[in-house]
Amino acid sequence: METNPVPQAEPPKSNRNVIIGVVIALVLCCCCVVTGVGGYYGYQAYVTAQQAVEDFENFPIPTDVPFVPSDPNATPGSPEFDTSGEVPEGGLADEETRVFAWASVQLIGIMSGCNAPTVEGTTITVTQEPDASGVWREDWNVNCGDGTTKTFPVKFTPENGIVNVEVEFQP
Question: Looking at the structure, do residues 103 and 51 belong to the same domain, yes or no?
């Protein structure tokens, strides 16, 4: 008995390798596009940073001082800070806060025409007792060093363990 060989059907062709190749090609193309876009924006940031550095290097720095306090030929109206290390007595603030307040009062005083504020003759008067949040106000009557006095309202605000000092400008 002889059997006739039945022709075997060829297995269906698989496109698996072609699909894998296409997917890999797409992933590589996407990586190239992402790298190109990142490089472009990185270069733009670099150019902007270089421009900022050049602008900063070309920024004019003033070298002239408007007044020299140690110059004996200076005009009599040139501002002078009280650097004696003393601070006015009085008020509700502690020593450290009064030092900071005194420096602030001197700066505001010089800007408002009190050219040589001094500790001697300067008095502090409490104008508002501390409220519920601890804020209080004082008037600092500052000796301007030329025989005149000027009053500067000062507000003290306790925040996070420190006391902020705010001096009102008096033109």
Answer: no
Distance (Å, whole) CA 127 – CA 155: 10
Q: Does residue 131 lie within any of the structural domains?
A: yes
Nearest-Å Rg of the Cα atoms of the chain is 39
- 74: pLDDT strictly greater than 60: no
Cα 7 versus chain centre, distance = 87
As for how many domains the chain has, the answer is 2
Other C-beta atoms within 10 Å of 109: how many? 27
Would the pLDDT of 98 be above 60?
A: yes
* Dist CA 93 CA 157 (whole Å): 10
Number of Cα atoms under 13 Å in the Cβ half of residue 50: 6
> Which residues are CB-neighbours of 85 under 8 A, at least 6 positions away?
none
* Whole-number percent of the chain with pLDDT over 90: 56
Same domain, 109 and 160: yes
Range of the domain at 33: 17-61
The percent of the chain in helix, strand and coil, each rounded to the nearest 5, is 35, 20, 45
Residues 117 and 159 in one domain: yes
**Rounded to two decimals, what is the model's pTM?**
0.55
